[in-house]
């Protein structure tokens, strides 16, 4: 019997794709050779694995977090993210660095009952089961209890749709220690749900972790001296500070700006998440939902000015990050990333991430309200363009210089300049 695609080994999958003319011989070689993770590891992570994608891993500097110097590992394909992060952190370092704090580190799971006739009666009955639910949960995942975690609290709520149909939801708050906790929470919910199924006739619609991790909040605060905002330019630092405040206030008025404002914050956070083997989708979902907590999508950062005209920044985010479990235990560079950033505990890593978000936002806003974002971004983009058109190590700096002098920079220009360069060399 022929194997299904997912049952094949990686080599068999590639052979199949080639036989079916779905890939060329060149693509076959490319996919075959560019796979540093062993097939065993990669097949353990995902389904239908045929090859692996590489991302550059870099380091951001100048992060002084609660008085401690930290190096920040970042994996990203976007030019300027690491440079901006280091630059923002440097401005903040000059005024004493970041101060952080965190709430409890608890994830929330939901068990949803559907088509409820008398919601308050069901909630009253469920409330009587609270103690039993705690012990069922502990039996469902005993190792997290041994680690000092497990279910911390159980809440009940009623939710109604537009047709007046009622749901009753149990919200289960679980201390997942240094894990991200999705599997831990889901296993606990499974155990609780099977107990509830025996005890209650009402139907359970679903049971699943919530990615709205508002019980895993981490906050970073910083100060930036106005004069540092103007250093190396002709701008007035206090005016730049004022405009940073105004730009943030503007984001709160306009979703088109707020989305980009927050995307810039996530540029850095996602890069740290990738470098440390964390679930970027979970972090993204939680942070953007948190940006809407006031009923309107708004800026995640707050920037104000103190009496001296210096800038005060604050960023609070739900960051359900892990230093154990999930991909963190499988991806080889993760241990390096954790060690170099001194992030053995999840909360410590979350603090690094929130500081990166604040630094990234500061650098972006400073550029936006002064010389504009393109100046710094495009000179780094020039490097990517030069590499993309096939410039060699020697040719890249020559092309970058020429492109930076041009009015407009694009791939066509890079191709033309490279062709001219090679022609002049040959003649
Ligand atoms: P794991 O299932 O890997 O569980 C954590 C593991 O870490 C456990 O095996 C635990 O051991 C071990 N561990 C070691 N030290 C500690 C410690 N100090 N604290 C806590 N655990 C420790 O991962 P998670 O439950 O964290 O789930 C994360 C994964 O789930 C991610 O890959 C995520 O992408 C995925 N996921 C995400 C969903 C979502 O976001 N909606 C949904 C489903 C999955 P022991 O068993 O001995 O306690």
TrEMBL record:
Pathway: Metabolic intermediate metabolism; (R)-mevalonate degradation; (S)-3-hydroxy-3-methylglutaryl-CoA from (R)-mevalonate: step 1/1. The keyword NAD applies. GO terms for biological process: coenzyme A metabolic process. It catalyses: (R)-mevalonate + 2 NAD(+) + CoA = (3S)-3-hydroxy-3-methylglutaryl-CoA + 2 NADH + 2 H(+). Gene3D superfamilies: 1.10.8.660, 3-hydroxy-3-methylglutaryl-coenzyme A Reductase, Chain A, domain 2 (3.90.770.10). Its EC number is 1.1.1.88. This is 3-hydroxy-3-methylglutaryl coenzyme A reductase.
């Amino acid at each position: 019997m022929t194997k299904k695609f997912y049952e094949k080994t990686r080599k068999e999958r590639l052979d199949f794709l080639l036989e079916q003319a779905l890939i060329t011989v060149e693509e076959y070689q490319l996919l075959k050779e560019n796979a540093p993770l062993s097939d065993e590891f990669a097949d353990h992570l995902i389904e239908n694995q045929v090859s692996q994608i590489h991302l550059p891993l870099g380091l951001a500097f100048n992060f002084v977090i609660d008085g401690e110097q930290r190096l920040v590992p970042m994996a990203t394909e976007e030019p300027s993210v690491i440079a901006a992060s280091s630059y923002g952190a440097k401005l903040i370092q000059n005024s004493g660095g970041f101060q952080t704090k965190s709430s409890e580190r608890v994830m929330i799971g939901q068990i949803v009952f559907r088509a409820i006739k008398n919601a308050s009666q069901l909630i009253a009955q469920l409330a009587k089961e609270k103690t039993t639910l705690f012990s069922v949960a502990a039996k469902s995942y005993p190792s997290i209890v041994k680690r000092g975690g497990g279910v911390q609290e159980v809440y009940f709520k009623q939710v109604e749709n537009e047709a007046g149909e009622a749901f009753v939801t149990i919200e289960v708050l679980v201390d997942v220690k240094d894990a991200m906790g999705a599997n831990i929470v889901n296993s606990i919910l499974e155990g609780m749900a099977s107990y509830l199924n025996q005890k209650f006739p009402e139907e359970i619609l679903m049971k699943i972790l919530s990615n709205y991790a508002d019980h895993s909040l981490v906050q970073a605060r910083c100060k930036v001296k106005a004069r540092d905002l103007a250093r190396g330019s002709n701008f007035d630092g206090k005016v730049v500070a004022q405009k940073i405040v105004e730009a943030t206030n503007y984001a709160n008025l306009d979703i088109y700006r707020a989305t980009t404002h927050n995307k810039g914050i996530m540029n850095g956070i996602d890069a740290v998440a990738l470098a440390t083997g964390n679930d970027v989708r979970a972090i993204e979902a939680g942070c953007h939902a948190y940006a809407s907590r006031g009923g309107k999508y708004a800026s995640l950062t707050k920037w104000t000015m103190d009496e001296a005209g210096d800038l005060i920044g604050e960023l609070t985010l739900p960051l359900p990050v892990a230093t154990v479990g999930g991909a963190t235990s499988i991806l080889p560079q993760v241990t390096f990333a954790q060690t170099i950033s001194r992030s053995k505990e999840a909360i410590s890593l979350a603090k690094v991430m929130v500081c990166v978000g604040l630094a990234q936002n500061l650098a972006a806003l400073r550029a936006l309200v002064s010389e504009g974002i393109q100046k710094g971004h495009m000179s780094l983009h020039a490097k990517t363009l030069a590499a993309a058109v096939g410039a060699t190590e020697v040719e890249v700096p020559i092309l970058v210089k020429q492109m930076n002098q041009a009015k407009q920079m694009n791939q066509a220009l890079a191709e033309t300049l490279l062709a001219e360069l090679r022609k002049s060399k040959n003649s």
